[in-house]
Specification:
Layout (H helix, E strand, L loop, with lengths): L8 E4 L5 H8 L2 E4 L10 H9 L5 E8 L2 E10 L8 E9 L4 H18 L5 E7 L3 H9 L3 E12 L2 E11 L31 E5 L5 H8 L2 H6 L8 H9 L5 E8 L2 E10 L8 E8 L8 H15 L5 E7 L3 H9 L3 E12 L2 E11 L3
Parallel strand pairs: 5-6, 12-13
Antiparallel strand pairs: 1-3, 2-5, 3-4, 4-5, 6-8, 7-8, 9-10, 10-11, 11-12, 13-15, 14-15
Helix pairs in contact: 5-7
């Protein structure tokens, strides 16, 4: 790819670019997140750059024979999110910055619109970078919210302005399909109003069948990013995963598994203060306090054992019960992702929320 009328050329990343990219990132201005710090060794950086992921597309900008920028576009592979992607740009601050940024963005939009057919493209910009915020707005990106203390760089906490560009989809002939602003119409079935005994414990491999039954429930799928078509082997494989950064609790009521929650610590550099949570409760046990018990367990772990500063999550805007639960435990709405996911026959907007541990 090449930007007309400019000496900057855009091409895919090549193995021999490793040293040039390594040197580029030291003085660069980065839009988004690249796992780099001044102490990373070249061999470690080379290993990261060499990892291939079909979701990730990487390009470099070349001016006068020198690499002046890097673009990474991540195309989300989840079936319910594969209409969207996110971009990260690193451009050398001391020379060719404006030209490099514009050429990389032109390449990103061409790839997203004309090759990947993405309808949603996301980017995060530092809150003090008004020039970049204004530039993204000039090419169709809109501010959706702010992630407080989203990263730690150069000795300070940084807030990120979350922006997205939506591209028209012919299926959106009815504008009401473009948002999920209606009240959730999923009702609990056969509610159990009295529970004799409730236990919150770590997840076990033997929980797979009960987890699978919950994940196949359309009511659960609607409020998560799951699909009702997944097979039990996928659930078993997930429970077999064991990582020091992954923490899972199970809710057991009267001997029956009725809910679960996951807390995953973010591992990338500058983000170890962040963890993400995801929760599901069997629809027959909604509105009986199971979600609160799961949240008590996971916030205790985050606050008193892991010293997690920021817990973040996404929740559909048409899930008022979920929003209320998270707010009850200190989460606040930071913004709204438009057309975040597709499922149950509708496009769903999602709030992104955070809970910040107070000093």
């Amino acid at each position: 790819m090449q930007k007309p009328g400019n000496e900057i050329t855009i091409r895919p990343l090549q193995p021999d670019d490793v040293r040039a990219i390594y040197d580029l990132l030291k003085p660069s201005f980065v839009i988004g997140d690249i796992p780099y710090d001044p102490g990373i060794e070249l061999s470690m950086f080379s290993d990261w750059l060499a990892r291939r992921n079909p979701e990730i597309h990487r390009f470099v900008a070349v001016a006068d024979g020198e690499i002046t920028g890097l673009l990474r576009l991540t195309h989300k592979s989840s079936h319910r999110l594969n209409h969207s992607g996110s971009i990260v740009i690193a451009a050398r601050a001391r020379s060719h910055y404006e030209e490099t940024r514009q050429a990389l963005l032109a390449a990103a939009l061409d790839l997203a619109d004309n090759w990947l057919n993405l309808y949603r493209l996301e980017v995060e910009v530092l809150n003090d970078s008004k020039i970049d915020i204004d530039y993204f707005q000039s090419i169709g990106f809109e501010v959706e919210g702010t992630r407080l203390i989203g990263a730690f760089r150069q000795g300070k906490w940084l807030d990120h302005i979350c922006m997205a560009r939506l591209r028209f989809n012919p299926q959106w002939s009815d504008s009401s399909q473009m948002t999920a602003s209606v009240e959730a119409d999923v009702k609990p079935v056969n509610p159990r109003r009295q529970i004799e005994d409730i236990e919150i414990r770590p997840a076990r491999i033997g929980d797979a069948i009960a987890f699978y039954d919950m994940l196949c429930d359309p009511a659960i799928c609607r409020t998560t990013l799951q699909l009702p078509s997944q097979e039990i082997r996928q659930t078993e494989e997930r429970l077999m995963e064991s990582h020091s950064w992954l923490h899972r609790f199970t809710a057991v009521a009267d001997g029956e598994i009725v809910g679960s929650i996951i807390l995953a610590e973010v591992q990338s550099r500058g983000h170890q203060h962040i963890a993400r949570i995801g929760m599901k409760v069997h629809s027959a046990y909604w509105r009986l306090g199971i979600g609160s018990l799961l949240m008590i367990s996971v916030t205790d772990l985050a606050d008193n054992w892991l010293n997690t500063t920021r817990i973040e999550l996404d929740v559909n805007t048409d899930n008022p019960a979920g929003i209320h639960l998270y707010q009850k435990f200190g989460s606040v709405i930071e913004g709204t992702k438009r057309l975040h996911g597709y499922g149950d026959g509708r496009w769903a907007d999602s709030h992104f929320m955070d809970r910040i541990q107070k000093e």
